[in-house]
C-alpha cells in the first residue's frame, strides 16, 4: 500500500516543482479517492496487518525511486520514442543485475512453468506495460500517469479472486470500487489533449 500509494503523492510534488505541472483540483480528488480505496483494499484482505519500520522505509524508498523515474523521463519523451527509451533502460538494468546471476539458483528457468513465468515477466509485465506507460505520458502529466497506475491493485485483486481463489469480501469490493471511481473521475474530468497531442491533462 505504501509503495504503490506513495508514488502519486511524490510524483505530484516533484512534477509541480521540477516539470512545472501544477496539479489540477480534479487530480487531488481522484487521487485521494483512489488512495482511500487502496487502503480499504489492503486492510480488507482478512489477514493481520503487521508493520516493520525497515519494510516501511524500503517501501517509501521504492515509491520515491519510481516517482523520480516518471518525473525524470517526462522531458526525454519529447525527443525520443518510448520504445527506444525502454530498450536502453532495460539493457542498462539487465547489465547491472547480471552479476547477481552468479549467486542465484537458475534451475527453475529450465522448467516449463519457470520459463513461462520468465517470459511473461519479460514481455507483458515489464516491457509492454512500461512502454505503454511512456506512450501515455507523451500527452499526460506525470502526476496523472502515476495515479492511473493504481489500476495495478485492481488487476491483482481480480486475478487473485479468479485464479488463486482468494476471498472476496465486501471490504475488498468497496476498495476496488473506490480505486476505479477515482480513476474514472480523473479521466472524465480531465481536459482532452489538443489535436497535436501537446496539451497536458493538467493545467
TrEMBL record:
GO terms for cellular component: membrane. The keyword Transferase does not apply. It is found in: Membrane. The chain crosses the membrane at residues 27-45, 51-73, 85-108, 114-135, 142-164, 170-188. It is a multi-pass membrane protein. It comes from the Bacteria. Its main location: membrane. Residues 54-187 form the EamA domain. SUPFAM superfamilies: Multidrug resistance efflux transporter EmrE. It holds the Pfam family EamA. Keywords: Membrane, Transmembrane, Transmembrane helix. Belongs to the EamA transporter family. This is EamA-like transporter family protein.
